[in-house]
Amino acid sequence: MKKPYEGHEIAYRRLRKRGHRSWDERNCAKPPKRSRGLDGGTRELLADVLSQPWAPKRGKAIELGCGTAPMLRWMCKRGFKGLGVDVSKTAVSMAREQSKGLDIRFKKADVCSAAISRPGSFDLAIDGHCLHCIIRPEDRKTFLSNTHRLLKTGGLFVVLTMCSPVDRKGISEVVRGQKLVDRVLYAPTDKASEYEGARKIDGRVYMPTRYVGHWKDILSELRRARFEPQLIRFNRGTPRDPFSDLCVGALALP
């Protein structure tokens, strides 16, 4: 059976068919300029992290779950060499097309299982909104272990993830038809036999799509994986944007 996050291949095919270059272009009422590729909030968060005295200013960067790689391109335009990894072959293809002329390589791989690169290869790792797409605790543990293995000691891990608390009323209006149960967001599906973790809720079959753990629990996950948070930015969910957001800059301990 497929992992739920493998369903992103279908999502990226739709994104390409509709002419969008990134999720920001699809989701924003006023899409970001193509030269930037990122919404202002994400750019500010990344700039905030990189401005810290403990953050690397250049070196090798890897984005895990890179999608079409607007974050990695932003980093590489500021002095980093990059590797982008995603489970979707369409996302990797789109990322390559959009990254011509930059010192970035791309690889199709499952960040929860594959040997992506040799240990200690990178000064910086970015969670490209990937961690909240990994549902099973054992997969999340493997993802964080792989990330730690890829980083040099003292390397920086930047996490950008959705989390709780959530605005429950907002969920029912913004993501209609989906259900939040035991920290997991479920979407209705007619392909239950294809994906892990599908379950019946109120007589209908749903598949898991997002992990929405409490922000304090996510920090605990990072510490158990031998990351020490240095910077934490938390934004609470609202009726218009019901899921909270967590940004963490954490250093890899020995």
Number of strands: 11
Helix fraction?
A: 25-40%
Low-confidence stretches: none
Secondary structure tally, helices: 8
Q: Specify the CATH class.
A: Alpha Beta
Major sheet: order of its strands? 3-2-1-4-5-11-10
The CATH H-level homologous superfamily:
Vaccinia Virus protein VP39
**CATH fold label:** Rossmann fold
Rg, nearest Å: 17 Å
CATH architecture: 3-Layer(aba) Sandwich
Total domains: 1
Strand/helix succession: HHHEHEHEEHEHEEEEHEE
**Major sheet summary line:** 7 strands, mixed
* β-sheet strand percentage: 25-35%
What class would the helix/strand composition place it in?
A: alpha/beta
Task: Please tell me about this protein's structure.
By secondary structure, the protein is of the alpha/beta class. It has one domain (4-174, 213-252): Rossmann fold, CATH 3.40.50.150. It is built from eight helices and eleven strands. It has helices at residues 8-17, 23-27, 40-50, 70-76, 89-98, 137-150, 168-174, 215-224, and strands at residues 59-64, 80-86, 104-108, 122-127, 151-166, 179-181, 184-188, 199-201, 204-211, 227-235, 243-252. The strands form two sheets. A seven-stranded mixed beta sheet has the order 3-2-1-4-5-11-10, with helices on both faces. Strand 6 (179-181) and strand 7 form a beta hairpin. Helix 1 (8-17) packs across helix 5. The chain is globular and about 50 Å long. It starts with 7 loop residues before the first helix and ends with a strand. The mean pLDDT is 92.
